[in-house]
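Supplementary Text 2. Reproducibility record for the structural model of the 258-residue chain.

All settings were left at their defaults, and a single model was retained for analysis rather than an ensemble. We include the record here because the model underlies the residue-level annotations in Supplementary Table 4.
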Amino acid sequence: MFRWHDATAPEPREGGDGDPLCSRQKTMTPKYLRVLRELSARIDTMNPGDPLPSEEELSREFGTSPMTTRRALTILLDAKRIVGIRGKGTFVAQQPMVRSLSLKSFSESMKSVGRTAHSQILELSMSPADAEVAAELEVDEGAQTYLIRRLRFGDDLPIAVDRTRLPAERFPGLLGKDLTGSLYATLSEQYGVAIERATSSVRAVAIGSDEAELLHLPEGTPCLAVRARAQDSEGRMIESTLSLYRGDMYELHVDHIR
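Retained model, structure tokens:
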């Protein structure tokens, strides 16, 4: 419908907070978006690891329902701006660490992003290879193999859980070595075996209760499962590792060259 415009009529005011137009615009903005914007701006001024108020405290602060506050927090979680640690609270997230699918060890990858790598030994054992392990390591079924399970840290942050198998015949006495550092460095320096080639496969998984507790994540959190098999210069299989990386802190980088 066409309306005549009276040139003598005063222009509508942009107005301040008390202006009806401004009030209407505020009313039209969904409450969760207002919470999201204000929290996002606050996070920009904070440091990684700084705690956020609880959902209940934020709801009181913004005058919103817990459901509205939770919606804003969920968006920030999905965007990796914040991270929730079970039993501890919600914190400003670290920037994701990027690792190339290359022959770099975990220790080398952590060093490249300015972190210090170390490991907590979860399990060390030697046992005969079943059919599946024998196929992975290309050894005879029943051959003795090592199992090394470790929790991997970048500084003091748990990053991944590794489950590594190696042929025991090639590395006598390995379980008696210090395995809290780089396994690749130990194999090279103490056994003269260097990794020359590796193949990896990556898939998304929902983390189970055991690994969730180790990585300080809620059960069911999406993580990256990377299976890698490494060979020496003669093409002999050296090790097979299944690594579970926390999805909120880790990105994998792949170069494609034609």
